[in-house]
């Protein structure tokens, strides 16, 4: 939450220059507060793991957040008990007449699959289009980020010869953005994907701005200039063992995966990984929720 100080206090200008969120007395007196409504379209097969990871990041906030989970109707997941979906998930037809302060569209294990060949692609496009008028701010994650950039702007991804897997350093491009309040200049985050997009393609769209990039992993965070859509290709919400589980799963399948970069100490899969991205993940989700949802969404949700 912000600190509230007198409008004319000299420290106000100094703190704002340092990218510290300061709320003036005037703004505090005129601010209405209500719970936030966030919809999560969970496209991952590991539904419960993904739910837990995202809820962990959204929960570390003084804000009251009502979270709902959305599943696709055009594709039935094979790796989750149907009772879980019936108990905790809705479909688009059940929410299409409602409005939400925020929405998260997760990634999906669809490397090397053309977007148009994805079983639920048409439904996903419908949901993304609906979100433009029914959701105040949407966070697209990993495959969901590439899908959104392709759908809204026609930006083609490129496929990597080998999967990008590991914990990479990332450089902040827009240092004064509220999204990066509390961040170090270089932050670490897991990557797990076999696709990318060039900086040149992002720069070719006036409505997009590059926020963070990695020399090794490429484009990492992009947002629209109106701050209504964020595209994040990394996984700062990952648990300590997520990359390890992916690595050993692929090893058991005989896929000969590369050892995740900068993950196992001494690159030895026998060593437990050391987490150096936990604070990054917490800050990213908290800042998105606070500055781009809570601080700017209409008090009357019907005005979205």
Question: Could you give a quick summary of the protein structure above?
Answer:
With 304 residues, the chain is α/β, with parallel strands linked by helices. It is built from ten helices and twelve strands.
What's the overall geometry? globular
Number of helices: 10
Strand order of the largest sheet: 5-4-3-6-7-12-11-10-8-9
Distance between the termini: 23 Å
Per CATH, the architecture of the largest domain is 3-Layer(aba) Sandwich
Mean of pLDDT: 91
Q: Please indicate the count of domains.
A: 2
Alpha-beta classification: alpha/beta
Uncertain residue segments:
1-5
Largest sheet: 10 strands, mixed
Task: Explain this structure.
The chain is of the alpha/beta class and 304 residues long. It has 2 domains: 1-29, no CATH class; 44-303, Rossmann fold (3-Layer(aba) Sandwich), CATH 3.40.50. It is 31% helix and 25% strand. It contains 10 helices and 12 strands. The strands form 2 sheets. Strands 5-4-3-6-7-12-11-10-8-9 form a 10-stranded mixed beta sheet, with helices on both faces. Strands 1-2 form a two-stranded parallel ribbon. The two termini are 23 Å apart.
Key terms for this structure?
single chain, 304 residues, alpha/beta, Rossmann fold, 2 domains, 10-stranded mixed β-sheet, two-stranded parallel sheet, 10 helices, 12 strands, 25% strand, globular, disordered N terminus
